[in-house]
Design goal:
The complex is a heterodimer of chains A (287) and B (276).
Chain A (H helix, E strand, L loop, with lengths): L4 E2 L3 H29 L2 E2 L5 E2 L5 H5 L3 H35 L4 H13 L2 H12 L4 H8 L13 H25 L3 H9 L4 H12 L1 H16 L3 H7 L6 H9 L5 H32 L2
Helix pairs in contact in A: 1-13, 3-7, 3-10, 4-7, 5-7, 5-11, 7-10, 7-11, 8-9, 10-13, 12-13
Chain B lengths: L1 H4 L2 H35 L16 H8 L1 H34 E2 L3 H13 L2 H15 L9 H25 L4 H8 L4 H30 L2 H6 L7 H11 L3 H30 L1
The chains are: A mainly alpha (287), B mainly alpha (276).
Chain lengths: 287, 276
C-alpha cells in the first residue's frame, strides 16, 4: 500500500479538481446564495436588496403559509407510511417466495422506478378526471350515480405520490432483505418462535437499514414535490414545492422563495436526523 | 420451507399467510402497472378522448411524428442527456477514484457534499441554480438555455455516478493494480489497461443512471431552462397543462416502451458481464 496516497499530492488534486469546481460552483455556492437572499428584501420589480432582514422567515408563520407547510409534511409522512405498508410485503414476497423468478420480479419494480415521474403522474390525471376510469368504476359498482370530484383533492395528490414513490421504497427494502441469512429464521423457528415472532423479532429488525433508506428516499422528494400537487392537487391542494415555485414565478418574491427553500432543506435535514436516531438506533440497539 | 420440514398441521398454518402474501403482492403489481397500461391503451384510441374507447387507430402516433415542437424537445433532451452524462461520468469516476484510493484532509466534507447533493430536494437545487445563473451568467451574457441545463444536470447527476463507481471500486482487488505497477506500468497505463476494464460495469451503470436522471428530469430543468429551449419532460408538462389529448399518451407510450427495452437489455448486459 506504499503508493496509496496519504495527504495531498498532485495526482489527487487532479482527480478532485473537476468535482470541486462543479459541486462547489454549481451546488454549494447557489445554496449559499439563496441563504443570503433569504435575508434580503424583495422590491416590487422583482429585484432584491441584500441585508439582514428576518421578515421572510417570520412570514412562514403566517397561518396561510403555515397550513401549507404542515400539510406538506403530513402528506409526505403519510406517503412514506403507505409506501412502507404496501412495499414491505412485496419486497418480502420477492426475496423469500420469489425463488427463481426473483430477478424478473425485481425487474418489474425497476421499470416504474426508471420511468418518468411526470408520465406516471399524468396517468393518474387521466384516471381521476371527471369521466375517467375511476369514476366509471365507481358508477359501475353503484357507489355513486354522478361523477365525483376525484382530481384536485388531497387524496388525489396522495394517490399520485404513493404510486410514484412506491418503487423507491421497494428497491432498498429488497436490497436489505436479500442479504438476509435465512438460517436465522430457521434458528428462530427451531427455538420455538412462531412465524409472527420470527418476523417481528428477527427479520424486521435486521431489515431496518432498508426501511430507513427507503423512508428517506420517499420522504425527501415527496416533501419537496412540485409536479404531483401541481397536476393532481390544482390550486386547492397547494404544497410547499408549489409555493416556492410561485415565489420564483408569478409572485416574483425571490427573498421569500429563498427563505421557504432554506426552511424546507433545514426541516428535511432535521427530520432525517430525528428519524434515523429515533427509529434507527432504537430498533437496532433494542435487538 | 415450512412445508418441507413441518408436520401437516404446520403446513396448513403456513399456507394461509403465504397465499395472502401472494395475493397482496399481485395486487401491488397490478397497482404499479394498471395506470401505465390504461395510458398506453388509450394512445390507440380513434377519438380525441383519453377516457372513452371508440376504436383502434394509430393516428396519434402520426400526429406525434408530425409535431415539430415535440421532435425539437426530444432533440434537446438527447443533446443535454448525452453531454451531461459524458461530463458527469468522467468527473464522477475521477472523484470515486480519489475517494477510494486516497485519504486526505477534507474527505469527510467531500463525502457529505456528495451525499447532500443526492438528497437535496430538487426544487431547492432548481431555485438555487436559477438564482445563481441570473446573478452570475446573465451579466456575462450567457442566457438560460441548453448550457445552463447541461451544467445543472451534471451538478445533480455527478454524485450518483460517484456513488455507483465507488461501490464497484470498493469491491475491486487492488493487488492487480499493484502487479501492473510492479511490472513497470505507469499510473496512466495501469488505469487504462487494468483499473478501467475492471470497473467498467460500474462506470456504465453510473452513466446509464446519469442519462436516465437527466432525460427524465423535470423540476430542475423547469427552473434553469429559460424560454427558448424545452426538453421532452418540459414539453410533456406544458401539453398536460394545455389539455389532455391522446398525443400525450402516444408520446408516453414511446417513452415507456423505450425505457422497458433499455432496462431489460441493460440488466441482461450487466448480468452477462458480472458472470464473465
Amino acid at each position: 500500500m506504499g503508493d496509496k496516497g496519504r495527504g495531498w499530492n498532485l495526482g489527487l488534486a487532479g482527480l478532485l479538481t473537476p468535482v470541486t469546481i462543479w459541486l462547489g460552483l454549481f451546488f454549494l455556492v447557489p445554496l449559499l446564495l439563496i441563504l443570503a437572499y433569504s435575508f434580503g428584501t424583495s422590491d416590487v420589480y422583482g429585484g432584491i436588496t441584500l441585508g439582514f432582514n428576518p421578515s421572510n422567515y417570520l412570514r412562514v408563520f403566517d397561518p396561510l403559509y403555515l397550513q401549507i407547510i404542515v400539510r406538506t409534511f403530513f402528506i409526505a409522512a403519510l406517503n412514506t407510511v403507505l409506501c412502507l405498508v404496501l412495499g414491505y410485503p412485496l419486497a418480502y414476497f420477492i426475496v423469500f417466495k420469489g425463488y427463481r423468478r426473483r430477478n424478473i420480479l425485481i425487474l418489474l419494480v425497476m421499470v416504474p422506478f426508471w420511468t418518468s415521474l411526470l408520465i406516471r403522474a399524468y396517468s393518474w390525471v387521466v384516471i381521476l378526471s371527471g369521466n375517467g376510469i375511476a369514476n366509471k368504476f365507481l358508477q359501475f359498482i353503484g357507489i355513486t350515480d354522478e361523477p365525483l370530484t376525484l382530481i384536485f383533492t388531497p387524496e388525489a395528490v396522495l394517490m399520485g405520490m404513493v404510486y410514484s414513490y412506491l418503487p423507491f421504497m421497494i428497491l432498498p427494502l429488497y436490497a436489505s432483505l436479500e442479504k438476509f441469512d435465512t438460517r436465522l429464521k430457521e434458528a428462530a423457528k427451531d427455538l420455538g418462535a412462531s412465524r409472527w415472532q420470527t418476523f417481528w423479532r428477527v427479520t424486521f429488525p435486521l431489515s431496518m437499514p432498508g426501511v430507513i433508506a427507503g423512508s428517506i428516499l420517499v420522504f425527501i422528494p415527496s416533501a419537496g414535490e412540485f409536479v404531483i400537487p401541481q397536476l393532481l392537487g390544482g390550486s386547492r391542494t397547494v404544497m410547499t414545492g408549489t409555493l416556492i415555485q410561485t415565489q420564483f414565478g408569478p409572485a416574483r418574491d425571490w427573498a421569500f422563495g429563498s427563505a421557504l427553500s432554506v426552511m424546507l432543506a433545514v426541516l428535511l435535514l432535521a427530520a432525517i436526523l430525528f428519524y434515523v436516531r429515533r427509529v434507527g438506533t432504537d430498533k437496532l440497539g433494542g435487538m | 420451507m415450512a412445508a418441507k420440514t413441518g408436520g401437516p398441521v404446520q403446513k396448513g398454518v403456513g399456507k394461509l399467510p403465504d397465499r395472502a402474501l401472494f395475493l397482496f403482492s399481485l395486487l401491488v403489481y397490478a397497482f404499479l402497472y394498471a395506470p401505465i397500461l390504461v395510458l398506453m391503451f388509450f394512445s390507440f384510441n380513434s377519438s380525441k378522448s383519453t377516457q372513452n374507447w371508440t376504436g383502434f387507430s394509430t393516428e396519434w402516433y402520426g400526429a406525434l411524428l408530425r409535431d415539430q415542437t415535440i421532435l425539437d424537445a426530444f432533440r434537446v433532451s438527447m443533446i443535454v442527456g448525452v453531454t451531461a452524462t459524458l461530463i458527469a461520468t468522467v468527473i464522477g469516476t475521477l472523484t470515486a477514484l480519489a475517494l477510494t484510493r486516497h485519504d486526505f484532509r477534507g474527505k469527510t466534507f467531500a463525502d457529505s457534499t456528495i451525499y447532500a447533493a443526492t438528497v437535496m430536494p430538487e426544487i431547492v437545487v432548481g431555485v438555487s441554480l436559477l438564482v445563481f445563473f441570473v446573478a452570475t451568467f446573465l451579466p456575462l451574457g450567457i442566457e438560460l438555455g441548453i448550457v445552463t441545463i447541461v451544467i445543472a444536470h451534471v451538478a445533480f447527476t455527478v454524485s450518483f455516478v460517484t456513488i455507483v463507481v465507488r461501490a464497484r471500486l470498493a469491491g475491486m482487488d487492488q493487488s492487480l493494480e499493484e502487479a501492473a505497477q510492479d511490472l513497470g506500468a505507469n499510473p496512466v497505463t495501469t488505469f487504462l489497461r487494468v483499473t478501467l476494464p475492471l470497473i467498467l460495469p460500474g462506470v456504465m451503470a453510473g452513466a446509464l443512471l446519469a442519462f436516465t436522471l437527466s432525460f427524465d428530469d423535470f423540476v430542475i430543468t423547469f427552473f434553469v431552462s429559460g424560454v427558448g429551449s424545452s426538453t421532452l419532460p418540459l414539453k410533456i408538462y406544458s401539453m398536460i397543462k394545455f389539455g389532455v389529448t391522446p398525443v400525450i399518451n402516444a408520446l408516453s407510450t414511446v417513452v415507456l416502451v423505450t425505457t422497458m427495452i433499455l432496462i431489460f437489455g441493460g440488466s441482461r448486459l450487466l448480468s452477462r458481464r458480472e458472470g464473465a
